[in-house]
Fold NAD-dependent epimerase/dehydratase family protein.
Amino acid sequence: MTQINRSAPVMVTGATGYVAGHLVKKLLDAGLTVHAPVRNPENVQKLKYLNAIAENSPGAIRYFEADLLKPHSYAQAMEGCELVYHTASPFKLNIRDPQKELIDPALLGTRNVLQQANHIESVKRIIVTSSCAAIYGDNCDLVKTANGVFTEDDWNQSSSIDHNPYSYSKTVAEREAWKIADQQSQWDLITINPSLVIGPGINPHATSESYNILKQMGNGTMKFGAPKLGLGAIDVRDLADAHFAAGFYPKAKGRYIVSAHNTDLFELTQTLIDRFGDDYPLPKKPIPKWLAWLFGPILDKSVTRKLVARNVNYSWRADNKKALKELNISYRPLKETMRDFFQHGIDNNLFNA
C-alpha cells in the first residue's frame, strides 16, 4: 500500500490541458500545492485559467519551465513530490507527421517523466493518463475479446503509425511506462484509461480533439448526419475524480478503464436535440456506412476507409467495474454531460470560430 502525504506538493504535467484542468482544480480545492511544469511560465494568457482557480481555492500552484521532449526537464518541478500525474500527451487526429506530432511526445514524454522519478527520492506514486486507445484499436477488435467486452487485460494490437496513429501513440507510451515501472521498486505506477473525454473544460480553447468534435456538432459540419461510430464516453469532471482517487487510495493498482457510457457518435448528438435542436444545425439522422466510407476521407483527411470499415456500425463495450468499485467514483448521465459541454461551447462562442 502507498500512503501519500497531502502536505507534499503534487506534480501535474500538461496542467494547462483539457484533462488536467479539472484535476488541478480538485487538487487546489483540497488545499494541496500543485507543481505545474509548463513550456513558458511567463505566458500569463495561457495560465490565466489555472491562476483564476488558484485565487479562489485554499491550495497553491507553482510553475516550472519544462519541455516534454527534453530529458531531465522535470527535475525541479518534481523535487519534493510524492505523487506525480503525467497527463501531457497530444490528442489530435488531423496530422501530417504522426511520429513527430503524436508518437514522440507521447513516448518520449512518458519516458522522460518516469525516468526522472528514479532520481527523485520523494516520489512514491505516478499516475499516467493513458487511454482506452491503448486497450483497443478498432471497434471490430471487440470480437477478439474473451467475453465480448474490453477490459484492463486487453491491449491494442491493431493500430500502427499508418492506421490509428493516435491510438498507436497511446499504446507504445503506456507499454513504455510499465516497462520502466517494472525495472524499479521505489514508486508504483497506475494508469487511467479513459474513453472519449467530453464535458466543459477549464480552458475553453484547449487543444483537444474533443473540442473539435463539439465544434463540428454545433457549426453545421454534421448537419446532414453523423455516423454510428461506436465509442465510450466519460465526463472530464468525473475523470478528474478518478485521477484524484487513484492518487490517494493506498490500494490502487494497475490499469483502470474510466468510461461511463457505451455509446456512439450519432447518439451523442441526439442528447442535444430537445434543448438545442431548434437553434443549431444538429444532425437528425445517422449517415449510412457506405456514405461515410465514400465521402469521409474526402471531407476529413483524418478519416480513412479502413477506419470507417472497422468502426462504423460496430458497438463499443467496456467493463468499467474496477474503477467504480476500487476508486469509489460515480458518473454523470450522458445527457447532462453533453448539455453542459454544448452550453460551454455556446458561452465561449466556439461554434462561430
